[in-house]
Amino acid sequence: MALDFDKLRSTVLPDDIDMPMALKEDVEYVFSVTNTDPDAMEIKGFAEATARVLERDGRELGTYPPPMGHEGLRQFICDQLKANRGLDVSLDNVFLTSGAGGACQTILDAFVAPGDVVMMDEYCYHGSLNMFLKKGARLIHVEMDNSGMIPDALEREIKNLLSDEGVHPKMIYTIPVYHNPTGATLSLERRNKLVDISNRYQIPIVENESYADFRLDGPLLPPSMMPLLDSQEGVMYISSFTKLMGWV
To answer: pTM for this one?
Structure first.
């Protein structure tokens, strides 16, 4: 007798969110999931680097990694954050994940319970939406314009929640650099206003800067919101190198 797996499925499932239209059509490049030109991958150099690492550190692959992730890679990330974003981050504050999605899921697992309110950008990457919805979070989408999340709109939504329902939001989630899907970058003025709101209402900011390294030219990016706070502990910072390697 064949098992009916439809009857075994969990009753706690996220709402259906359509995948990007390009994934349903026969197109050459799908930029929304970084499925771009396969010839852009430097296979020869990647193979040579992999061989060197296997010869040098191959024995480590047969054991469990440290709980926070490979120490050498975490130190490299600290150095890169200092050089590229001006962030002074200690080794003990970097936790390796499976891409930015893994970093986001780690934060959700640690801090968000079903029914918790999360403030987020008016428009949001569908992968993040699925994770928040699967967790049972109540999402409040904050108005955006061409410059990203509008601080006054954020504070208005927070005040309404507090006065009308007595509900204190759990966190503010935003993609402030090359926002997905709008491409907006939050100005320094707005970052300072978001940090001020975070301080006054005691709501942590989850800052997803996964796209910061995509800058090729033009004006320098505004600084991360981490150093704008009196204490960096008010910001949980997400970034990544690839779909497979991220950190929080």
So the answer is: 0.83
Instruction: Write the CB contacts of 171 (distance below 8 Å, at least 6 apart in sequence).
Output: 107, 111, 112, 118, 119, 203, 204, 205, 206, 236
How far apart, in whole angstroms, are the C-alpha atoms of residue 169 and residue 153? 14
Alpha helices of the chain — where are they, by DSSP H? 5-8, 43-57, 71-85, 99-111, 126-134, 151-160, 188-201
Residue carrying structure tokens 């979070």: 137
Task: For the chain, list the domains and their CATH numbers.
Answer: 68-247 (3.40.640.10)
Residue 7 token pair: 């009857």
Per-residue pLDDT of the chain (248 residues; tens, 9 = 90+): 678 887 777 766 655 555 555 455 666 666 656 566 777 778 899 899 999 989 998 888 788 888 999 898 999 999 999 988 889 888 999 999 988 999 999 999 999 999 999 999 999 988 888 899 999 999 999 999 999 999 999 999 999 999 999 999 999 999 999 998 899 999 999 999 999 999 999 999 999 999 888 888 878 899 999 888 665 578 999 999 877 788 89
Give the CA angle between residues 244, 246, 248 to the nearest 5°: 155
CB 173 within 8 A of CB 119: yes
